[in-house]
Design a protein that fits this description.
The protein is mostly beta strands. It folds into eight domains: 5-69 and 467-620, Sandwich (Jelly Rolls); 92-180, Alpha-Beta Plaits; 253-449 and 621-674, Peptidase S8/S53 domain (Rossmann fold); 697-814, Immunoglobulins (Immunoglobulin-like); 821-933, Immunoglobulin-like (Sandwich), CATH 2.60.40; 936-1077, Immunoglobulin-like (Sandwich); 1086-1161, Immunoglobulins (Immunoglobulin-like, Sandwich); 1164-1222, Type 1 dockerin domain (Orthogonal Bundle), CATH 1.10.1330. It is 12% helix and 33% strand. It is built from 16 helices and 70 strands. Strands 1, 2, 20, 22, 23, 26, 29 and 31 form an eight-stranded mixed beta sheet that branches. Helix 8 (361-373) runs parallel beside helix 9 (390-397), helix 10 crosses helix 11 (652-661) and helix 15 (1175-1185) runs antiparallel to helix 16 (1205-1215). The longest helix has 18 residues, at 629-646. The protein is flat and about 140 Å long.
């Protein structure tokens, strides 16, 4: 038999359901693919069989000896049979599943109508079966309906049959299980599907006819179901507009906080950042006060109710409900995550599915009744299963809400194989199939020409979700994580994780009377997790009903509890078994398996592989892709909410009719559902909106406005209604030429597409959806700029529901004005920078030009007076951009004008368009007159006499604002550089015209005595008229005879430079300075920090010479020298030393010699004279003591007049550092 995967859930302590192979069990399973915050990815598959909440655990004591199980409590009952009143399904795939310990009945109206009679008949009837009423639905409006807990001896089949025969009972039925309707297949641990945006998104072709209103949520581009642009999801490129036209619908409405959508599911993570703003809160309940403030039967039901655990926390321990809620109403346009079909809504979380995704009829009915009582407009049900339940059918039929139900995921025809609750006949049920991003019916989706109503996106849908964490995982490649008795080992047979699986009896049959234990060595940490669940893959062959594999758990590793057992045979098929561990949430848990057999027989045993414990991180929100009719259903629930938002008077059947009448009919759905199409939110909203009796009106606060000034229009219409507002198309090519809607206005959404409006100026900020206030008005501000065309503009308001209802107003935009102001007094030096500034309210650019004597009659550019203007050609003008506050400024450098202009006046023009002087008749402009003066320069030196090593400064003023001046200096064999090279120095000119150049001391050191000449060169043009080639010493310039200055004497070099500066082609000006360099007396001198000591003697020498020497030469008397100014030298030999110092400048030198300046003696104990006391000196003293060497008086360290053993000991101690000194 081919390996296949199915799912098994345990049903408590006293009942073990039969096992269904893969073809049946996984059909309504669910694929989770995790995305966003949280830890590793994971997959959970759910099925109709689910673990019953464990209330009476069986105790096991972990001993290898006796089996302490009370077999009467874990004895497997026979498989349930159908009562005569219920159809027996033909295959296991169709077999309904139900709670083995309870049923639901309803007494006939003549009994139920009288409370006293109902109490009497109920007591009598139930006493005959021993059943106990656990829930009486009479308290919530379903009179005579009760949930009964059966005695252990009474099967569901027997109970249903007994109550059905009772003449006072209207019907009796099992308490059916229901499970999440999400996609059954998909690879385990699949990564987030790849997403590729369409390179160019063509216009949408659906009813909306355009892009509509696009939110700023970062993951919106992946929501193909809302807006399909052809993007690629999970490797499949979509079909453009195979979506519900959500953006187009949002141009009319994004929903309403007055619309309540109840999500009856596994709960909702109501703290999720993308959902919190849209979670319903009970207005009649005071949080956490312990009272039922609104008298609805539920205490502190602030956010809804948990009908699974019967408490007030409808949080999600599975993730399915949170995903559905996000598709319905994840907050839109909040710069976070995804957007729901409704940006604004109230999601009512109602939990009846457990962590394993399973709930029962009793919980579903309670949830529907709660939603009804608390005013839900839409009830979203992404689940199904069980069989036909009259109880559930009655509850749905009696709610005024539209109930949107998943059609199922087994690719079945619901006309032939009903799927509940979607197949109930109630008019307020809307059954939903799943479509793909290529406009096909999803491969897994149910269909039905008469039983399924509509299709909606349901494959690879991204939405909000909880974050799941794997707390424990073992592929059973070894048993290192387990304590196992001798019977357990590894088998080379495995499920998916090669190479092995755990086996209770490797290689053979298990033995009779076996107690084989396999438990985790260490506790599994569930801290911070909720809804913990154990998953493992199993294959087994056990004596049916007698030999059993118990799944066990323990809080302390000592006392274990059974969650139920496997028995019989899996017939060679692997099953994925799911066991809730939520009773251990937040605490450590040990898990294990116990094979308990009797003595009557033996079989092949059990294989266990891939054991995982997974929980939900309660404070960690995320996003996930999921597939299934579960995902299609909330799309339709959201559309129903949008429909309700624009027309609160609609009944459930009217909403359903509108949704079915406005679908996009497609071949893929024709004949497979009632409507033959996929839901279209835009068309549904348009059809639902009530017709406005009166058209909207519009007025402006100004009939005319000058460029760059704003105006405000006021729209009046129905209170709290959306309207479209736009500027009528004026045939202008750019948006900047139109008045534009100011950004950031409350109640104004720019850029919406307006279907069927043909005269709109097609730019983002020329059109918007506005929402009137509760008073029926909305003020909208329009901006104009310099670029706005001066003409009449028509502003129109239209009702998006009935575009024939409209009004308009005309606003005239007029030309602005230009002003021009020069800096200063109007009189300027050539070369000076002039700042021209002003305002321009007519355009975004100012065009400047100059007219006057010797210039082109119609004007020239300011930067180049030789370029005549060309009217209408901006490049021939000096152009300046206008700032946002309408001001402009231009800095004009007049250095290039020297010699071009005379002392006459010149006129500067500032124009709002590129028009020359001859074409100003229709232009907006301003003028100013200026006069220019010639540039000048002054210079002074710090001194006329200079001693080498002194600083020399040249300072002055350069009129005409040059950037810098050049400094030329000539003297004896000096041309500004070293070694007779020509060098020209530059000095920057400050804003006030001042400049300064400093000839540093290091430079003057090298100057010879004699006369020096300095020339300061001022450029009137941008560039210097005379330049130097410093490599050759040649000067050059326009009309200048090239001269090699470095071959001339100082005076002649200076004269040649002046001649060049006076050339006709050079307009530079200059100043001349002279100074003389005289020599100073040079006198060598020095000092030392010490002049006597023992070896080694380190001496610091300091130069104290006069006359600013430039170099030093030391001779220390021991053959060593130095050229450092202040050297440090160490003498290592005794002696008397003479020290010499010679100091020099460029013009001379001086020497000082100090005779016998230093006296150096040997170190005490250093008889060898090597500057240290070592073992040789110690030996020498010892030889002196024993007469092998002549005594040296210096060895008498003790001072007793003789060299003796005490002296030898002392030097030895000194050598080994036992004493500090001799």
């Amino acid at each position: 038999m081919t390996k296949s995967v199915a799912v098994l859930f345990f049903f408590g302590l006293i009942f073990c359901m039969g096992f269904i192979p893969v073809s049946a069990a996984v059909a309504d399973g669910e694929l989770w693919e995790w995305y966003g915050s949280g830890n590793s990815a994971g997959q959970i598959v759910l099925s109709p069989e689910t673990l019953e909440r464990f209330e009476r655990p069986m105790m096991f004591t972990n001993t290898s000896g006796e089996d302490e199980v009370d077999r009467t409590e874990v004895q497997m009952s026979t498989k349930p049979e159908k009562s005569a009143g219920l159809p027996l399904p033909a295959t296991a795939q169709e077999r309904p599943l139900y709670d083995p310990g309870s049923i639901i009945i309803r007494f006939k109206p003549d009994v139920a109508s009288s409370p006293s009679l109902l109490a009497q008949v109920s007591e009598t009837t139930h006493s005959q079966t021993g059943s106990v009423v656990t829930m009486d639905y009479s308290d919530i409006g379903l009179s005579g309906m009760q949930v009964l807990q059966l005695p252990e001896a009474l099967s569901v089949t027997e109970a249903v049959d007994a109550y059905s025969r009772n003449p006072d009972v209207l019907y009796a039925e099992p308490n059916y299980y229901y499970y999440a309707d999400a996609m059954p297949d998909g690879p385990q641990y699949q990564e987030l599907p790849d997403f590729t945006p369409a390179p160019t998104a063509p216009p949408a072709q659906g009813g909306g006819g355009g892009a509509g209103r696009i939110p700023n949520d970062p993951e919106f581009g992946k929501l193909w179901g809302l807006h399909n642009t052809g993007q690629t999801i999970n490797g499949r490129t979509g079909t453009t507009d195979a979506d519900i036209d959500a953006p187009e619908a949002w141009s009319i409405t994004t929903g309403s906080r007055d619309v309540i959508v109840a999500v009856i599911d596994s709960g909702v993570m109501y703290t999720h950042p993308d959902l919190a703003a849209n979670i319903w809160t009970n207005p009649g309940e005071v949080p956490d006060n312990g009272f039922d403030d609104d008298n609805n039967g539920y205490i502190d039901d602030v956010y809804g109710w948990d009908f699974y655990d019967a408490d007030n926390d409808p949080g999600d321990f599975n993730g399915h409900g949170t995903h559905c809620a996000g598709t319905i109403a994840a907050a839109g346009n909040n710069s976070l995550g995804v957007a729901g079909v409704m940006w604004d809504a109230k999601i009512m979380p109602l939990r009846f599915l457990g962590p394993d995704g399973r709930g029962d009829t009793a919980g579903a009915v309670l949830a529907i009744r709660y939603a009804t009582e608390m005013g839900a407009d839409v009830i979203s049900c992404s689940w199904g299963g069980g069989g036909y339940s009259q109880t559930l059918a009655d509850a749905i039929a009696e709610t005024p809400a539209l109930v949107v139900c998943a059609a199922g995921n087994e690719a079945l025809n619901n006309d032939l194989n009903p799927h509940y609750p979607s197949s109930y006949a109630s008019e307020n049920i809307l059954a939903v199939a799943a479509s793909t991003n290529t406009e096909q019916l999803a491969s897994f989706s149910h269909f039905g020409a008469t039983s399924v109503d509509v299709a909606a996106p349901g494959e690879y849908i991204l939405s909000t979700c909880v974050t799941k964490v794997t707390a424990f995982s073992d592929t059973m490649d070894s048993l290192e994580a387990w304590d196992a008795d001798a019977l357990w080992g590894l088998n080379t047979v495995y499920y998916t994780s090669a190479p092995s699986a755990a086996d209770d009896s490797p290689g053979g049959y298990y033995s009779p009377n076996t107690n084989a234990w396999l438990t985790t060595k260490d506790p599994i940490n569930l801290n911070g997790l909720q809804g913990a669940t154990l998953f493992f893959n199993a294959r087994w062959d056990l004596e049916d009903g007698y030999d059993k594999l118990h799944v066990i758990s323990s809080p302390d590793g000592e006392t274990y509890y059974s969650h139920g057992n496997l028995t019989g045979s899996s017939e060679g098929i692997w099953y994925t078994v799911t066991v809730p561990l939520s009773m251990y949430d937040g605490n450590p848990v040990y898990i294990g398996f116990a094979l308990i057999s009797d003595g009557s027989g033996q079989r092949d045993g059990v294989l266990i592989d891939d054991v995982d414990v997974v929980g939900i991180e309660s404070l960690s929100a995320g996003y996930a892709y999921m597939s299934g009719t579960s995902m299609a259903t909330p799309h339709v629930s959201g559309v129903a909410g949008l429909v309700r938002s624009v027309n609160a008077s609609l009944s459930a059947t009217e909403m359903k009719e509108i949704i079915l009448d406005t679908v996009d009919t497609k071949p893929a759905y024709t004949g497979k559902m009632v409507s033959g199409g996929r839901v279209n939110a835009y068309e549904a909203v348009r059809a639902a909106a009530p017709v406005t009796a009166q058209p909207p009106s519009i007025v402006s606060n100004k009939d005319s406005v000058i460029h760059s000034y704003n105006f405000i229009v006021t729209v009046s219409g129905e209170p709290s209604r959306p309207y479209w507002l736009y500027v009528r198309d004026a045939g202008l090519p750019t948006a900047a030429e139109y008045p534009l809607i100011a950004p950031g206005q409350v109640g104004v959404t720019p850029g919406v597409e307006m279907a069927d409006i043909t005269d709109v100026a097609d730019f983002t900020d020329t059109r918007a959806q506005i929402a009137t206030s509760a008073g029926g008005t909305r003020m909208v501000e329009f901006n104009t700029t310099h670029a706005t065309r001066a003409q009449n503009f028509t502003i129109t308001v239209v009702d998006p529901v009935d575009t024939a209802l409209s009004d308009d107003v005309v606003v005239t935009v007029e030309q602005g004005a230009v002003t021009l102001f020069p800096s200063g007094t109007g009189f300027y030096y050539v070369g000076e920078e002039i700042t021209l500034s002003g305002t321009n309210t007519d355009s975004d650019t100012v065009y400047l030009f100059l007219t006057g004597p010797n210039l082109n009659t119609n004007g020239v550019r300011l930067e180049d007076l030789g370029v005549p203007l060309m009217d209408g050609t901006p490049a021939t003008f000096t152009t300046v951009d206008v700032e946002a506050d309408d001001t402009w400024s231009y800095r004009w450098d007049t250095a290039s004008l020297n010699g071009t202009l005379n002392s006459s006046g010149y006129t500067i023009y500032a124009v709002s368009t590129p028009r020359d002087k001859a074409h100003l008749s229709d232009a907006v402009y301003a003028t100013t007159t200026i006069q220019l003066r010639p540039a000048f320069i002054t210079a002074e030196a710090s001194s006329t006499i200079l001693t080498p090593g002194d600083e020399y400064r040249i300072a002055g003023i350069a009129g005409g604002a040059p950037a810098s001046v050049q400094i030329w200096i000539f003297g004896p064999d000096y041309y500004g550089g070293y070694d007779g090279a020509l060098e020209v120095w530059s000095a920057s000119v400050e804003g006030d015209g001042t400049f300064e150049y400093v000839l540093e001391e290091i430079t003057t050191y090298a100057l010879q005595e004699g006369q020096y000449y300095a020339v300061v060169q001022h450029p009137v043009d941008y560039n210097f008229g005379v330049m130097a080639d410093t490599a050759t010493g040649v000067i050059y310039g326009e009309g200048v005879a090239n001269v090699t200055l470095t071959t001339l004497l100082a005076y002649d070099a200076a004269t040649a430079l002046i001649t060049a500066l006076d050339s006709p082609g050079v307009d530079d000006i200059y100043a001349r300075l002279n100074f003389e360099v005289v020599d100073a007396t040079l006198l060598a001198d020095f000092a030392a920090n010490t002049t006597a000591g023992t070896t080694p003697l380190t001496v610091q020498f300091n130069d104290t010479s006069a006359g600013s020497p430039m170099s030093w030469s030391w001779a220390f008397g021991d053959g060593n020298t130095s050229t450092v100014q202040n050297p440090v030298h160490t003498y290592r030999a005794p002696g008397t030393y003479t020290v010499n110092l010679t100091v020099s400048t460029a013009s001379g030198s001086d020497t000082l010699s100090r005779l016998d300046y230093l006296t150096v003696t040997n170190m005490k104990g250093d008889f060898k004279g090597d500057g240290k006391v070592d073992i040789g000196d110690v030996a020498l003293v010892a030889h002196m003591v024993v007469g092998k060497a002549a005594p040296n008086p210096a060895a008498d360290f003790n001072g007793n007049g003789a060299v003796d053993i005490g002296d030898a000991a002392k030097i030895a101690y000194y050598f080994v550092e036992k004493i500090p000194a001799l």
